[in-house]
Amino acid sequence: MYPGLLGEPFGFKHTKTCLDGKVAIRLLAEAKEAFPMEYSALLTGREATITGHFPLPSATPSSVAFSWDGPVFLRALRAIQSEGQQWLGVLHSHPTAPPLPSLADREGWHYPQLGYWILGPVQTDPQLKLYQWTEGRFVERPFQLLGHHSSGSAIRS
Ligand SMILES: [Zn+2]
What is the CATH code for 17-141? Predict the structure, then answer.
């Protein structure tokens, strides 16, 4: 349906997944704006490097889960493709909880080739974690924050 749209950020043996520090700062700012509701966004870029994001409003705003409207999600995918970018992952916030996958996270994610990012707790001590769904569970993966000096003060990884 969308050839080449799904990237493979974990598919590069010698390259860690990278996240542009400027994108990280925007994600944290937007997650704080959404507080106390969960915030979610599609992460975009090329190969293993995330250089953009696409905020997705939750179909049913909640402080403990997120879900997307089918047509809104498909529109976002089309926009990503028309910009020549790849979909590399999803980020959502845990407004008041640490960035550990919840039961809803484990049951709701079915894209093992993409990154699953969790940011939380948003207001007090935001930490960013990257997971990959593999063999029926989430495994934490390392990543590199590009331009870390500028974003390191805002987000711990
Ligand atoms: Zn979650």
Answer: 3.40.140.10
